[in-house]
Amino acid sequence: MPAADFVVVANRLPVDRVEGPNGEEVWRTSPGGLVAALEPMMRSAHGAWVGWAGQPDVALDPFEINGIDLVPVPLSAEEIADYYEGFANDTIWPLYHDVIAPPQYHREWWDAYVRVNRRFAEAAASVAAQDGTVWVHDYQLQLVPQMIRELRPDVTIGYFHHIPFPPHGLYAQLPWRDQVIKGLLGADVIGFQRAQDATYFLTAVRRRLRYEVKGSSVTVPTDDGGRRTAVARAFPISIDTTPYKELAASPEIRARAAEIRASLGNPKKILLGVDRLDYTKGINHRVKAYGELLEDGRIGVEDVTLVQVASPSRERVDAYVHLRDEIELAVGRINGDHDTMGHTAIRYLHQGYPREEMVALYLAADVMLVTALRDGMNLVAKEYVATRADNHGVLVLSEFTGAADELRQAVLVNPHDIAGLKDAIMRAIEMPPAEQSRRMRALRRRVLENDVSAWSASFLQALSDVRRP
Ligand code: G6P
After folding, report:
1. Which residue's CA lies nearest to atom 5 of ligand 1?
2. Domains defined for the chain, CATH in brackets
3. Ligand 1, residues 30, 34, 314, 375: which to mutate, most atoms within 8 A of Cβ?
4. Strand, helix or coil at 14?
5. For 305, how many CA atoms within 13 A lie in the half-sphere containing its CB?
6. Distance in Å, CA 376 to ligand 1 centroid
7. pLDDT by residue (tens digit) across 42-56?
């Protein structure tokens, strides 16, 4: 495999190795918005992608798939438990999402995080061409930028943080708070979803390390007594809108949307939630608000159905196990109280679906409910908007998502305020077509203009500006 001028480093490869129906090993598109966001750009750049194949203890040689060179990084079962399920998803994830679940601090998890970050850095350093560019992604790999810089001072390093960065009062809890920001400052450009995330990061840098910060630039002292500049600012991520627009226009998908509506008993209004089953997504708040609307008699199951797709995620982390129990208990109770033979209150699907089926669901949905308590961006909101070519449909969007900075014409909600959430849902259900269309038109303009290629182009432009000012 030739050295790569452009290297993406992410916890996951864009494909997962999974067991097929007959016990054979097959590759499947891996979960999360990251893959969908970066894949189109990677294809055109002929780069390499360094990441984990999603299974324990598989050592695979680099290989090519759909025009991308993939470089698998092996993780042992113990490392998956300590680095991925532990430090990444039970320490950093809850701490960075406003401690919605309590973060766990364990020194063995941190040791595994350092060890695994070094392995990713070494893999990236070994495939990057002289003076190449390496783009590191997300909270699982916050130490990698500095580690790559030590190994390969010639390469330009970008880092993009897909999740929120917490306010200093929370960040300061992290026992390894100084090491993590030093790790990130190894990058030339550190990208965040919202301006607020960049501000919080810069505050942590100023308060913890006392480095000079001017606007979005940080003066970072180097080992040889010199100094370099790192830039930290917002680059709100988006989606590749083309497949969503195309699928939404396809007669087969439109027929499938009609079939979905019919299978739900052709209710007047379909509400839709689509999330990984995660405590940050506010699924329980949404279900509670909807259940109360039924209870209050403001809606009835013949007229309004909620479809909730909750795709399985991080199923061995305790907080996720408890969340699943909690949601399924609530959904079961509401359905038990309100279902009729012909109509269901909540059609709950603990499954992941291919993009075709998701687009059919988006087309079938009159109201999209995004009620996250905290979310770096939320690409589901943008996917829904991209499919609504007829300018109908209403997006109810939590203020606590990155998307809320851009999608101002959504019905914005505070999901903690159940009374307010109920009113917002009613407003969406009852919204006149002219208002739907005025709002959706503005939302679509925003999403279609600021797509994922505009996002990656602006990040890469900032990277070349800081390296060669
Ligand atoms: C979020 C994170 C991604 C992650 C995805 C799926 O979108 O920002 O880095 O890949 O969730 O989570 P998982 O733990 O399955 O990779």
Report:
1. 32
2. 4-237+453-466 (3.40.50.2000), 241-449 (3.40.50.2000)
3. 34
4. coil
5. 25
6. 11
7. 776 668 999 999 999
